[in-house]
Design goal:
- The chain is globular.
- It is built from no helices and 10 strands.
- It is 0% helix and 50% strand.
- 33% of the residues are buried.
- By secondary structure, the chain is mainly β.
- The chain has a 6-stranded mixed sheet, with no helix packed on it. Strands 1-3-8-7 form a 4-stranded antiparallel sheet, with no helix packed on it.
Amino acid sequence: VQLQACGGGLVHTGGSLRLSCEASGFTFTVYYMTWVRQSPGKEPELVSQITPGGAPAYYADSVKGRFTISRDNAKNTVYLQMNGLKPGDTALYYCARGRATPYDYRGRGTLVTVSS
């Protein structure tokens, strides 16, 4: 199983990024997928989840209305469109397989830095 996230970077407040997480090594279409973020010195925060069929299942209150999760099952990829970024969104973002902790697989993550 591999989960490869990309798309992070440095943006100014109010900017946008689109994260991608390409999955391999398992039957992607039967799993919920999850985005989690972790800032230095803080506990991991569940950001968003999506059902196997592509319906958003959860957004953290802190990202509602700004972030959109989606997936392309033909490409084994889950996305996180992030708009209206704030400095508080600065974190390492990683995707994980499943909907409940502990996640059995997670990717290394991609770093998002939002400057004020």
